[in-house]
Design brief:
The complex is a heterodimer. In chain A, the strands form 3 sheets. In chain A, strands 11-10-9-12-8-1-6-7-13 form a 9-stranded mixed β-sheet, with helices on both faces. Chain A is of the alpha/beta class. In chain A, helix 3 crosses helix 4. Chain A has 7 helices and 15 strands. By secondary structure, chain B is α/β, with parallel strands linked by helices. Chain B has 3 domains: 54 residues, Alpha-Beta Plaits, CATH 3.30.70; 189 residues, 3-Layer(aba) Sandwich (Rossmann fold); 120 residues, TPP-binding domain (Rossmann fold, 3-Layer(aba) Sandwich). In chain B, the strands form 6 sheets. Chain B has a 7-stranded parallel β-sheet, with helices on both faces. A 5-stranded parallel β-sheet of chain B has the order 19-18-20-21-22. Chain B has a 3-stranded antiparallel β-sheet with strand order 12-13-14. Classes of the chains: A alpha/beta, B alpha/beta. Strand 11 of chain A pairs antiparallel with strand 17 of chain B. The structure holds flavin-adenine dinucleotide and adenosine monophosphate (AMP). Flavin-adenine dinucleotide binds next to helix 8, helix 9, strand 21 and helix 10 of chain B.
Chain lengths: 262, 398
């Protein structure tokens, strides 16, 4: 089974800070990590490979440092990593991102399965998976939290979560899935994997290598534009209720009455 | 391509300063462009005091005549025959936007045996309803719903398309945007119109709500957004409102799909679902044992709410993964959030800090959850919750 896993390097939530004056992200001291959902996409790929064999290629579009994310994926068990990096890719929204990723996947040749995380924790859009599938002309299912492959090796059964419960779905590969954290528990890197990752060369593909049209990538290929950002201030409104448990409960009930909750 | 008019250029260096991509620099007192590095962002063009810079060509992607796109569309969501609350919220918001644009609101209703809902959409604010009723639409598939909506949009050229940021909307609306090759802003919490150029201003949280970004879609149409449930307010239905109902028969070619729905299962939902709930009582590891989680359920029931979980509570097997709130779970913003035995790890906080009132009960007065709390109670959940439940029951006279 040929599987491509798309991973994004995102700022670690634990180290992210914001400048309330300027309304921007403070870049200094922010650590970059693999988007948490993408670990689950990787794990889904590894489990399929463990059963059906094949090859796992990890793909990431980002600045040169995103190589670290790809190396981490290799240490976990991916077979190869490819970095899509070019200054012309900068400023891409989901429309330009899906074009660029699709170009790379087409260049890789026939794939059976493309796996993405449900969403990236920086932009939280959850749009890249579906958009990429449309670009590739393959069916997709989002929010997958259980999957199995039937005996024919190409039909999949999937469970997709929604507000009221879930749907059981069937599709035939090639296809794209976006996965939830509840799908699996990601494995840890092995020592052998870490050694292999350290030595691995990560090819970097730029716009020319992809044969990407200039008007379709980066800022120019993006339909949306950020015009302003601000940091919401959560007013300091902390009130610790005092006294015994009974007194605290009494105080809370009166706050509830004031707020119209009771 | 970025062109420099060497007659006008004075070599002042403004452009070099302003370029984020180090793509333009002054050499021999005239600006020179590194065309490989240039992303055509246009910042230098706007900043050039001499008007010596110009972006030429490459305008092919832009919708040529923006004025030929008209009207606001609301994609109605109908689950098990009932309109989703977010659809009604969007109708109210669209009415307000349509007033500013002097245009009308169209609801697009897809499903099977749903036509009776069309009147309801009119009562809540639609001027026109496009009804696509077909047996193939009885169950939701991204392909069929997406293809039909994209096809309608291609024929009618709406200026704006809005849909709920629900499981369904977040799944197939990106399909529509990609087919139409236009922008889509996910999960908006605010919408407005910039009067001078009729642009839709779309505000959305990023980085788990720590940053608010306002996004526009200048050169492409339609302008598309999914909107988070529960942040906008629906109007009361007006049974005297009149509107037009238009039935549409989908072309056969739009009805084929490669994903088959084997079954749709409704899980025994206790109370409202998380994203639409007014009240959420969240159970954390502080409950210590599964049986204590009943207390959270009891309080939620009493307040007409539903139960959420931290990852620790999910990992312990007390509650299902779908109730997890936070970075790798769902994001919620109820009127009242009661965090019980929750430490307040950043991965949890990003999913709930937008709640209106946050009550926290924790036996550790130093727990970080108290930093985002409105009313904090220090104590044991096993003691406080039964007291609170009894006290509310007394208040209600039961
Ligand atoms: C990549 C990543 C993603 C994650 N995503 C999420 C996510 O989406 N959602 C999420 O919730 N977590 C997430 N986590 C986990 C998160 O870091 C925390 O581990 C988790 O939120 C802790 O849950 P908790 O507050 O229930 O448990 P704990 O941190 O163990 O806190 C329990 C609290 O209960 C208090 N307590 C104990 N006994 C009592 C009692 N009898 N009465 C009152 N209080 C008591 C304690 O003082 C403590 O503060 C993620 C972690 C990572 C690394
Ligand atoms: N720049 C990128 N490179 C590779 N994969 C990406 C990139 N951006 C998004 N993805 C994938 O798309 C998923 C959803 O991202 P998003 O639509 O940005 O929320 C992520 O979990 C990744 O699997």
């Amino acid at each position: 089974m040929n599987i491509v896993v798309c991973i994004k390097q995102v700022p670690d939530a634990k180290t992210v800070r914001f400048d309330t004056e300027k309304g921007t992200l403070v870049r200094e001291g922010v650590e970059a990590v693999i988007n948490p959902f993408d670990f689950h996409a990787l794990e889904a790929g590894f489990q399929l490979k463990d059963t059906y064999g094949g090859e796992i290629t990890v793909l990431s579009m980002g600045p040169p440092q995103a190589e670290n994310a790809l190396k981490e994926a290799l240490s976990l068990g991916a077979d190869k990593g490819i970095l899509l990096s070019d200054r012309a890719f900068a400023g891409a929204d989901t429309l330009a991102t899906t074009y660029t990723l699709a170009k790379a996947i087409e260049k890789l040749g026939p794939v059976d399965l493309v796996l993405c995380g449900k969403q990236a924790i920086d932009g939280d859009t959850a749009q890249v998976g579906p958009g990429l599938a449309v670009r590739l002309g393959i069916p997709y299912v989002t929010c997958v939290n259980a999957l199995s492959v039937l005996d024919d090796g190409k039909t999949m059964h999937l469970r997709r979560i929604n507000e009221d419960g879930y749907d059981m779905l069937e599709l035939e590969m090639p296809a794209l899935l976006t996965v939830l954290a509840s799908l699996n528990t990601p494995r840890l890197p092995s020592l052998k994997g870490k050694m292999r990752a350290r030595k691995a060369e990560i090819p970097v593909w730029d716009a020319r290598e992809l044969g990407a049209k200039p008007g379709m990538i980066g800022l120019e290929g993006s339909a949306t534009q950020v015009v302003s950002t601000s940091v919401p201030t959560f007013e300091a409104r902390r009130e610790m209720l005092e006294g015994s448990s009974e007194e605290q409960v009494e105080a809370l009930v009166s706050r509830f009455k004031e707020a119209g909750i009771l | 391509m970025l062109k420099v008019d060497i007659e006008k250029c004075t070599g002042c260096g403004e452009c070099e300063e302003s370029c984020t991509f180090e793509a333009i620099f002054v050499e021999d007192e005239v600006a020179v462009v590194d065309q490989d590095a240039c992303t055509l962002c246009g910042i230098c063009v706007d900043g050039c005091p001499e008007g010596a810079l110009e972006i030429q060509g490459e305008q092919g992607l832009l919708a040529t005549d923006l004025s030929s796109w008209k009207g606001i569309w609301v994609v109605a969501e109908c689950r098990s025959g009932v309109l989703a609350p977010v659809t009604l919220e969007l109708l109210a918001k669209s009415g307000e936007l349509a007033g500013k644009l002097d245009t009308e609101v169209t609801a697009v209703l897809m499903g099977h045996e749903i036509e009776s809902r069309a009147q309801e959409l009119i009562f809540y604010g639609a001027d026109r309803v496009l009804v696509v009723d077909h047996p193939e639409l009885a169950t939701f598939t991204d392909e069929v719903y997406g293809n039909i909506l994209a096809d309608l949009a291609k024929k009618e050229n709406p200026e704006i398309i809005l849909a709920g940021a629900t499981a369904m909307g977040r799944s197939y609306i990106p399909r529509v945007a990609t087919i139409l090759e236009t922008g889509l802003t996910a999960d908006c919490t605010g919408l407005d119109i910039r009067a001078e150029d009729r642009t839709l201003l779309q505000t959305r949280p990023a980085f788990g709500g720590n940053l608010l970004a306002t996004i526009v879609c200048p050169g492409h149409r339609p302008q598309m957004a999914t909107v988070r449930p529960h942040v906008m307010r629906a109007n009361a239905p007006d049974p005297d409102r009149k509107g037009e109902v238009i039935r549409i028969l989908p072309g056969e070619d739009l009805l084929s799909h490669r994903v088959q729905v084997l079954e749709s299962v409704k899980e025994q939902a206790e109370g409202p679902n998380l994203s639409e709930a007014d009240v959420i009582v969240t159970a954390g590891r502080g409950f210590e044992q599964e049986k204590n989680v009943e207390l959270a359920k009891e309080l939620a029931d009493l307040l007409g709410g539903t139960v959420g979980a931290t990852r620790a509570a999910v990992d312990a097997g007390w509650l299902s993964g779908r109730t997890q709130i936070g970075q790798t779970g769902v994001t919620v913003s109820p009127k009242l959030y009661v965090a019980c035995g929750v430490s307040g790890a950043i991965q949890h906080i990003v999913g709930m800090q937008g709640s209106e009132i946050i009550v926290s009960i924790n036996k550790d007065a130093e727990a970080p959850i108290f930093d985002v709390t409105t009313y904090g109670l220090v104590g044991d959940v096993k003691e406080i919750l039964p007291l609170l439940i009894r006290r509310i029951q007394k208040e209600r006279g039961s």
